[in-house]
Each structure stands twice: as C-alpha cells, then as structure tokens.
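Format notes (please read before filing issues)

Several people have asked whether sequences and structure tokens are stored in separate files. They are not. Every record keeps both together, in the order shown below: the sequence lines, then the token lines. Line labels are part of the format and must not be stripped during preprocessing.
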Amino acid sequence: MEEQPSADVQKRVRNARRVFVVLAFLTLLSAGSSAVGIPVLAVLLITLGIAALKGSLVAMHFMHLISESPVIYLILVLALLAVAVLLLLPAADIWLRG
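Then the structure lines:
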C-alpha cells in the first residue's frame, strides 16, 4: 500500500504547479509581444522585464531562495551591483568615446 504524501509535500507541489502556469503564461506573453505593433525598444524593455520576473520566480521557488535567511539577499544584491558596474563601465567608455 502506498503512503499519501504529507500536507507539506502537497502544498509544495501545488505551489510548483502555480509557478509553472505563471511561467508558461509569461513565456507566451513575451513571445506575443513582438507581434503587437509597438516600437522595438518597447518590446525589448517588456521582454527584458518579463525575463527578469521569470528568473526571479525560478530562483525564489525552484531554487528555494524564498525561505533563505536575509544574508543571502544581501549577497545577491551585492552580486547584482557588481554585474551592473561591470556592464556600465564599458558602456560608459564606449559612449564617451563616441
């Protein structure tokens, strides 16, 4: 006889299914955004925003970062700041050299 999964496991599976549905919807939304008659820059910004949202959903729920201590968030913010600086320095150099 098989055991029934615990309430915690059932809750996690239900949550994972919800996140999957949201990710699928966001994927369709980002794919369909190019078919709408809006400027390319707007489509780019929309799809980048959707990609950031999808990435945060995956990190929070499937990588279990949602239940981590606040120190993890500090490390994440510092890493993101480092990436931003490393991307902005060459961009500023290219922009200033014209």
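For reference, the curators noted about this record: The CA atoms of residues 2 and 9 lie 15 Å apart. Residues 1-67 form one domain.
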